[in-house]
């Protein structure tokens, strides 16, 4: 206890040694959850900060003072340090006592319930990078414990915004400095924030008539303005350093992925780049078969600057909310029941036991009755009507997911230019019936060599019965390397990265991270090509999105025809419907 309370480590090395301690007792578990333990972790982080963030420690003049960066690191470790230690000590304690699986499960569930709200609180307090990571994790219902997914879901569109006046002042300054324009001459109105995220927030505005077609813009007078938060780039740089250290301590194997994420995300701090990406994606999609099924906002490039993006306003709601609303209407307007049904289905998919419904020939109608617990809640005379409505809703959901997968498959394999961040908050059900795809700050481009090599991997994965040696060869061609060149393990990595979670679930691993550790224990991957990281992230996001929308996906099967077309160097996809790997 005295060791924990008086801990003042002189370097991150000694703190990491503390985190790796392999002796635990019930007294220790009590201490690490206490306030003094949090102070101790913060003290350790303070003493280690020059080692963690040497550039920030030396200069500290990139929009935020050195003191501000240190304060953020202290706040992070004050709250997160005890959580990491609590999980570590609990794991060691259960291993020492050889706790049975049911005890481990109950213990982990309890810990997740305790710490998920704290994680959300820290994210909302610090914002910056932590909001972005929280958004990604909230879309991975098959990756993260559901307690964290449910807590972090609010980050999709409910992050508290900065004051409207502050955003308006940034817009005024940007217009004056970059275009020499007066705010009151350009905008008829500037509204409250529609949503806030990690880097900036979006406001509704109305252009004055004389600026409604500036520079060839044709998106209309109603616009959305994305405004970058002040000092956010500097915060991200230092937050990445702190989070990278967390990966070394508590999330082994995540650091290479985080480095690639950092490299890509640091390109987001110039909204002129996003405006150009929007133009490119819009042009590509206009030449695709999906031009009348989706909409991508048109940027008013003549009004855009580094810290401000003006674009067409798309009217609609999030796709997940639209599906919940449809189910609620079927259930006589009972939104609480709709959420309960969707959450229960999500949990079944998370556990990997949803396939049992098909074997037992259960219908969604029967599942709803089981959840409600009273068959009379839905009258027998309404049973046929509601069953048909539920079937229609299931088809609607599958069709929407199929369209999303086809669109992103086209972007990846045929265009070589795709959105690397298609989380649920970026997909809208528009009032016109189309899907609206927004937020192209993380557009990733693939060179021809990488695009065709990736196509070879996905085409092999998408065919039933493809030998593991063939899949492994395509992975090596793409640039993957393993220590022992084990075909079976390389092929299983391919399935995890670009296919589905079926193998992981079958073997009983709760998360992809645990399954990856198992695979690396046999034959570790020693090189992952950069091009693979964001495509794999897109695959993971879609699988998580499928879980949130009550569908299990195999992205390789969904994308296999696109990949085959890319290998044949075709310019457009076939007009027939593509297989959806459900």
From TrEMBL:
Q: Name one Pfam family in it.
A: ABC1
Q: Which GO terms describe its molecular function?
A: ATP binding; protein kinase activity
**Any signal peptide, and if so, which residues?**
none
Please state every residue range assigned to the domain named Protein kinase: 188-582
**SUPFAM superfamilies cross-referenced by the UniProt entry:** Protein kinase-like (PK-like)
Q: Superkingdom of the source? A: Eukaryota
What name appears for this protein in its UniProt entry? Protein kinase domain-containing protein
């Amino acid at each position: 206890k005295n060791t924990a309370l008086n801990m003042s480590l002189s370097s991150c090395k000694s703190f990491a040694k503390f985190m790796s301690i392999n002796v635990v007792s019930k007294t220790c578990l009590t201490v690490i959850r206490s306030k003094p333990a949090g102070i101790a972790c913060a003290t350790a982080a303070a003493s280690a900060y020059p080692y963690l963030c040497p550039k920030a420690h030396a200069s500290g003049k990139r929009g935020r003072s050195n003191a501000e960066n240190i304060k953020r690191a202290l706040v992070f470790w004050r709250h997160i340090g005890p959580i990491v230690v609590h999980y570590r000590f609990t794991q060691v304690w259960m291993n020492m006592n050889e706790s049975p699986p049911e005890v481990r499960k109950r213990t982990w569930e309890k810990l997740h319930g305790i710490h998920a709200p704290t994680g959300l609180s820290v994210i909302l307090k610090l914002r910056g990078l932590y909001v972005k990571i929280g958004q990604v994790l909230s879309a991975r219902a098959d990756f993260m414990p559901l307690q964290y997914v449910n807590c972090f879901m609010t980050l999709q569109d409910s992050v508290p915004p900065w004051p409207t006046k502050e955003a308006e002042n940034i817009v005024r300054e940007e217009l004056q400095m970059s275009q020499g324009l007066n705010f009151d001459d350009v905008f008829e109105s500037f509204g409250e924030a529609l949503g806030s995220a990690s880097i900036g927030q979006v406001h509704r505005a109305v252009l004055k008539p004389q600026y409604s077609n500036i520079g060839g813009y044709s998106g209309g007078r109603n616009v959305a303005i994305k405004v970058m938060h002040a000092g956010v780039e500097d915060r991200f740089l230092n937050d990445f350093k702190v989070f990278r250290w967390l990966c070394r301590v508590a999330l082994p194997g995540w650091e290479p992925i985080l480095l690639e994420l950092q490299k890509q995300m640091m390109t987001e701090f110039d909204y002129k780049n996003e405006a150009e990406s929007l133009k490119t994606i819009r042009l590509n999609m206009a030449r695709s078969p999906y031009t009348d099924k989706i909409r991508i906002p048109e940027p008013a490039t003549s009004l855009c600057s580094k810290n401000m993006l003006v674009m067409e306003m798309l009217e609609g709601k999030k796709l997940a909310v639209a599906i919940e609303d449809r189910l609620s209407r079927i259930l006589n307007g009972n939104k609480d029941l709709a959420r309960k049904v969707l959450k229960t289905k999500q949990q079944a998919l998370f556990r990997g036991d949803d396939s049992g419904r098909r074997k037992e020939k259960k219908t969604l109608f029967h599942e709803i009755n089981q959840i409600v617990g009273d068959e009379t809640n839905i009258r027998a005379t309404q049973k046929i009507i509601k069953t048909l409505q539920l079937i229609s809703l299931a088809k609607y959901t599958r069709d929407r997911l199929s369209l999303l997968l086809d669109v992103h498959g086209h972007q990846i394999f045929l265009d070589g230019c795709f959105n690397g961040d298609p989380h649920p908050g970026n997909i809208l059900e528009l009032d016109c019936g189309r899907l609206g795809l927004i937020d192209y700050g993380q557009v990733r481009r693939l060179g021809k060599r990488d695009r065709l090599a990736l196509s070879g991997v996905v085409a092999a994965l998408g065919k039933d019965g493809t030998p593991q040696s063939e899949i492994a060869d395509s992975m090596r061609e793409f640039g993957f390397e393993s220590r022992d060149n084990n075909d079976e393990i390389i092929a299983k990595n391919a399935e995890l990265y670009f296919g589905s979670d079926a193998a992981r679930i079958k073997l009983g691993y709760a998360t992809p991270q645990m399954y990856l550790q198992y695979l690396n224990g046999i034959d570790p991957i020693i090189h992952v090509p950069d091009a693979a990281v964001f495509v794999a992230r897109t695959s993971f996001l879609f699988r998580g999105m499928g879980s949130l929308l009550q569908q299990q996906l195999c992205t390789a099967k969904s994308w296999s025809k696109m990949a085959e077309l890319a290998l044949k160097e075709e310019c457009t996809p076939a007009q027939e419907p593509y297989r959806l790997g459900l």
